[in-house]
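Inputs:
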Amino acid sequence: MLQFPKSGKIRVGLLMALVFTLLAIIGPWLAPFDPNKSLTTTNGLPQPPSGAHLLGTTQVQQDVLSQLLVGGRSTILVSLIAGAVATALAVVLGITAGYYGGWLDDLLSMLANIFLVMPALPLLIVIFGFINKTANPPDALIGLVISITGWAFGARVLRAQTLSMRTRDYVTSARIIGERGWRIMMFEILPNLVPIVATSFLFTVIYGVGAYTALSFLGVISVAHWSWGTMLYWAQSAQAAQQVHIEWWWFLPPGLAVGLFGTALALLNFGIDEFINPRLRTAGLTRRRARAAGQPRRGAA
Amino acid sequence: MRLVARRIVLYALTALVAITVNFFIPRLMPGNPVEVAIGHMQARVTPGTIRALDLQYGINTKLGLVGQYVNYLDQLIHGNLGISFSSYPATVVSVIRSALPWTVGLVGIATIISFALGTLLGIAAAWRRGSWLDNLLPAMTFFQAAPYFFVAILIVALFATKLGWFPQNSGYDTTTLNPGLNWAFMSSVLDHAVLPALTIVVGSIAGWIIGMRNMMLTTMDEDYVLIAQAKGLASRRVISYAARNAILPSVSGFSLAIGFVVSGSLLTEIVFSYPGIGYILLQAIGNEDYPLLQGIFLIITFAVLGANLLADFVYSFLDPRTRQEA
């Protein structure tokens, strides 16, 4: 029954996401060196890529490739945990608010709106700022804290969709049969929201990567905890981009990795959006065919 | 105006939540912030300062939580955010006040450019669906997904270090100039602002383009657009009819975006050593300067709420339906 999706965006996104997930799992075992270890003491300058160090070294002669592989696991794990927890919260709070309505809806919607307008990064900085910097918080805890600030958008979208569904015939009949509230929400409403839940999950994972990378770049989360953000923290504090000979091998790999991982998820998201709303499709659509398909013409007469 | 009134209630509540969270975080977290403070200020601390810090963080006090909270609100209303550990004896308010204009100017101008340019490009991308502009979408997605500070690092490396077109860091030429209302200083400020502003535009424009494009595509299927075309209006007129309706979600989406943009520009400032809030934020983190961290959190929250309110006024001005009394 499952067809391989036609959209090129979904295919590319899926492939990239799979590669990143695979690297997150096996990356640390592939790493040729210990990311913390200073490999030589001969030269105080970061070394450009060579046969021994495929992505060069840092200022203290640590292997950049090893840091990238080890840091990838933490980065992806934290963002997936943040995405999963935030989406679970969004599903529970959003569908409950939409289905029951009344004061519960008012309360939950207000809560979601507050979290939407409150700037998330400064709040996260204050929370992590008070955790002792020498303490090395586990990835699960970091993901959990980030998820607190990431559920509101999904909850709002899911609430709006639930609202439009709760008066449909099949929901009404389920209620008349006497199904309980939670059963209607889980088995009648939720299955119809799967594409939106998926979009919201991908959206929060992208948010999680961004938040985690930003927090480690700022040095709020222990800088001894390897992630792509930590690598950028060290590159920035050594002013790798400001040196006369730009040390591109130091900041380019982690930055590209974050950007490409986010792009993969965003492409998947575009694909799902186009699946829900066919108007947005561009695949295989030339302008002439768009015109033939009844799109508004460009230019008069 | 009902919409605006409802939003004001929301913003007031959000401000209250932020203030309350700000009160509880230091009290819930393990460790004693005052000991950290004394460690950083070393011998310069007077017993009076220690007493003030104890009061601020609720240590060695007989006052209950409610009493402490009332005290804290009272201090806040009088504009007292405490003393900065790292620039002791300067107050948090004075440290923030010297950095705030830089950030507000930078973010404000960059956001206006990004919004205007992104919306225009979004209109163009929708009107010529299937053209080369659509092929740019994945590339723009990358710049949206990549962290702001990474884009900033790339821009520094290329335009400042490699090509030498613009300065690498700081807000103006600090070695030869003093701040003042003269041409030399102003042009130096502009020169130093180009790259940070470019970073913020590059990092945030994709959202406006994609949002506008998608809304435009939906709007162009409406009957009134078809009629406008059928009666032979120039395509510029047709576009403007469709665009002025399609832009509404972009304006209401502004409130969601502004928080991200502000956070992103804080990180951008760090890369450029730009003397704004982001820069003092980094110092506050490095020195475990809790009062400054908390002060920055509150100020940014209030600023974002203010920007939201402004966007709501614009929205109710643009959309007559929200002005009707129901």
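Chain A touches chain B through 71 residues (CB under 8 Å). Flag for discussion at group meeting.
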